[in-house]
Write a structure and sequence with these properties.
InterPro entries: 6-hairpin_glycosidase_sf, 6hp_glycosidase-like_sf, Glycoside_hydrolase_63, MGH1-like_GH
Bound molecules: (2R)-3-hydroxy-2-(alpha-D-mannopyranosyloxy)propanoic acid
Keywords: Glycosidase, Hydrolase
Strand order of the largest sheet: 1-2-3
Radius of gyration: 20 Å
CATH class: Mainly Alpha
Order of helices and strands: HEHHEHEHHEHHHHEHHEEEHHHHEEH
Protein name: Glycogen debranching enzyme
Organism: Sphingorhabdus rigui
Strand content: 5-15%
Pfam family, one: MGH1-like_GH
Number of strands: 10
């Protein structure tokens, strides 16, 4: 145990590039949005100043319109594609043109409460402002149905990049003008653990649409080639709004309290649009065709974390978890075995990602399902003990997949499952 604690700290320290942490050396040489949020929880276990700094460095890349980009390219690195010159957003610091799961407010609230929840806490107040601006950006640009859910315009925004939920929408993306490019990811890790070339062409084509319209977020939202309502981000934003509300109340920010309460009520009601009765779970849905993916993913179980679902829906979700234990040795797989395109080694089509497991477990505790939360926590610890601090893990044999010495996995060990 102690040895693993030391290893986890060491990974964070070695992946520190000076105020921000890379997810892992080689494969991901920049600062990623939701990675940094979880990494802050890891640093908080031994260096609180560094924890706050991780998030402060992240928001140095926030756009004037409020978007917090998915990557901040503090220093150029030829080892990653697509790098800053491909995104060409013209920002300083250089950034990508899309966002990532809005988990920041939830993590800021935790850091702040762990330090006594002082409403005059200056670092919290600055990050509160940044989160509020970002949440408003989602409201303005990413809620096409005005139901409080989150539309993503690139599968990379979801953080669950190659989940099978996006397959049908990606199949409609025209790749005829993509041109030549050199992937770098498959030079770092086994190609069998990464998205296919066909999928990458589609990811690049969507990026090119954004770049060609000068990263005009209105145009991308209205006419972009990929428009999905993501169950993961919808749940995460609802949760993050609740956490922002707690901070607004502590500070007595009256107008924002009213604004957030309305936003939360809208999302709570809107979430039913994602409920798939046949699957017995919340599933992502296409914003253009309205088609539900019908797939049970780890994000489906974020319902508890978001605080949604009536007793019947919650019972069905617990039944789905129970069913999954029949095919998975470890919880929570990113896709249920037997589903279309399930692959226990390929990225977000089966492997376990500890940051999602952490959020799922957190929600289960809050809903009183302690035994399930404990099971997920101890499975997560066993994965690290067995295989090390990998990017993700096979739900079948527990082997590591993707990059080694991974920052958010180390952070989850320190902050949660050790
Ligand atoms: C993965 O995504 C990046 C693109 O953003 C990639 O594959 O190049 C995802 O697992 C994502 O969720 C994560 O934030 C990122 C860095 O760990 O890697």
């Amino acid at each position: 145990m102690t040895d693993l604690n030391a290893q986890a700290r060491d990974i964070l320290i070695r992946n520190d590039r000076g105020g921000y942490t890379v997810p892992t050396h080689g494969l991901y040489p920049y600062q990623w949005n939701w990675d940094s949020a979880f990494v802050a929880l890891g640093f908080a276990e031994f260096d609180r100043d560094r924890a706050w700094q991780e998030i402060e460095t992240l928001i140095s890349g926030q756009w004037d319109d409020g978007m917090i980009p998915h990557i901040i390219f503090h220093k150029d690195d030829p080892g990653y594609f697509p790098g800053p010159s491909v995104w060409a957003t013209g920002k300083t610091p250089a950034t990508s043109g899309i966002t990532q799961p809005p988990v920041l407010a939830t993590i800021v609230r935790k850091l702040w409460e762990d330090e006594g929840a002082d409403p005059t806490h200056s670092r919290m107040r600055r990050l509160y402002d940044a989160c509020l601006k970002s949440h408003r950006w989602f409201h303005v640009f990413r809620d096409p149905k005005a139901n409080g859910l989150v539309m993503v315009t690139h599968n990379w925004e979801t953080g669950r990049d190659n989940s099978s939920e996006w397959d049908d929408a990606l199949a409609r993306v025209d790749t005829s003008n993509v041109g030549d490019y050199q992937r770098r990811d498959t030079g770092h890790v086994d190609a069998a653990m990464r998205p296919t070339q066909n999928e990458y062409d589609r990811y690049v084509a969507i990026l090119q649409f954004g770049r060609n319209c000068g990263w005009n977020h209105r145009e991308i939202a209205d006419n972009g080639p990929f428009r999905m309502i993501d169950v993961g981000m919808s749940m995460e934003l609802l949760r993050a709004n609740r956490d922002l509300l707690a901070m607004a109340k502590a500070m007595g920010d009256a107008a924002v309290i009213v604004e957030l309460e309305a936003r939360i009520a809208l999302s709570e009601k809107g979430m039913d649009w994602l409920w798939n009765e046949e699957a017995g779970a919340y599933c992502s849905r296409d914003a253009t065709t309205d088609q539900s993916s019908g797939l049970v993913t780890n994000a489906s179980f974020l319902a508890f974390y978001a605080g949604v679902g009536n007793s019947t829906q919650r019972a069905r979700l617990i039944a789905a978890l129970e069913r999954i234990t029949g095919s998975a040795t470890y919880l929570v797989p990113s896709l249920e075995a037997g589903s279309r395109a399930y692959d226990h080694k390929r990225y977000w089509r089966g492997p376990i990602w500890l940051v999602v497991s952490y959020m799922v477990a957190q929600g289960l505790v809050e809903a009183g399902h302690n035994a399930w939360a404990d099971r997920i926590c101890s499975d997560s610890a066993r994965l690290i003990e067995k295989s090390g601090f990998y990017e993700s893990f096979s739900p079948e044999d527990g082997s590591g997949s993707g990059g080694p010495d991974f920052s958010w996995t180390a952070a989850m060990w320190l902050a949660w499952c050790s």
